[in-house]
């Protein structure tokens, strides 16, 4: 006796159009379907939390929350495994009785092809769900990886590593604490602004991180947020420094008695 994999997937998809489920519950259902398919379609099957978490991207609490929802919706049953044993799941068919079981007297090659196609479909769907950005309500313990965020983090780490390398090649080796401070400035002002600070530091023959930090503190105090802001600020600063104010004429001092005598004598 085997579940009709393709029809079950289609029935679940149709159900989602009429009944909302959390992303965690959807991912868990597809994960359990995939695992049961791999197990040869048993009525009940073991699914260790570690394996479910690896395949679904859900945390342990996320699995528990999603499992509770699926059970309440009548989509699965689950018996908690005894100590050292995995939970036992049963998937509840969404099909009418007549459509629930594959007719094994039909062409076996067609069944095999259907199972393979369905498996590929499920894997693709799991990947899409894992990559989607999920709006989580308070209390949801959903940890679905987001490919875009991962890529952005990798790019940010690469930029930070490059900045550290530039500093150490031009200034000197950073100790762990100073490196942390440098990266904090990167996150506060941006890598481009910090890099511009390093260039200015090298131009003025600065040799300590404290020198760079003074530059960055000055820019932060001036609300500098981009390279354009840096250039405008430094240009205005240069104009101020090069401006010579009108000199006040010294006040005329009182003449001494000798000066007055010379003046009277025409000297």
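-> sequence recovered:
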């Amino acid at each position: 006796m085997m579940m009709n994999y393709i029809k079950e997937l289609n029935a679940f998809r149709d159900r989602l159009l009429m009944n909302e489920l959390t992303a965690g519950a959807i991912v868990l259902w597809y994960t359990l379907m995939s695992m049961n398919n791999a197990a040869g379609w048993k009525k009940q099957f073991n699914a260790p939390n570690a394996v479910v978490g690896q395949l679904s991207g859900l945390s342990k609490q996320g699995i528990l929350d999603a499992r509770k929802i699926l059970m309440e919706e009548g989509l699965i049953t689950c018996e908690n495994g005894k100590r050292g044993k995995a939970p036992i799941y049963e998937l509840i068919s969404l099909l009418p009785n007549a459509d629930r079981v594959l007719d094994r007297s039909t062409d076996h090659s067609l069944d095999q092809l259907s199972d393979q196609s369905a498996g590929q479909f499920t894997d693709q769907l799991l990947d899409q769900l894992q990559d989607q950005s999920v709006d989580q309500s308070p209390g949801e313990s959903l940890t679905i990886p987001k490919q875009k965020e991962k890529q952005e983090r990798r790019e940010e780490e690469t930029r930070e590593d490059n900045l550290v390398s530039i500093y150490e090649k031009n200034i000197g080796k950073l100790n762990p604490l100073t490196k942390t401070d440098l990266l904090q400035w990167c996150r506060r002002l941006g890598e481009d602004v910090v890099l511009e600070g390093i260039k200015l530091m090298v131009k003025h023959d600065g040799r300590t991180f404290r020198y760079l930090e003074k530059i960055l503190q000055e820019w932060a105090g001036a609300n500098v947020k981009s390279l354009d802001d840096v250039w405008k600020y430094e240009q205005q600063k240069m104009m101020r420094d090069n401006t010579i104010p009108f000199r006040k004429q010294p006040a005329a001092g009182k003449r001494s008695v000798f000066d007055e005598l010379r003046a009277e004598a025409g000297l």
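The chain has two domains: 5-131, 147-242.
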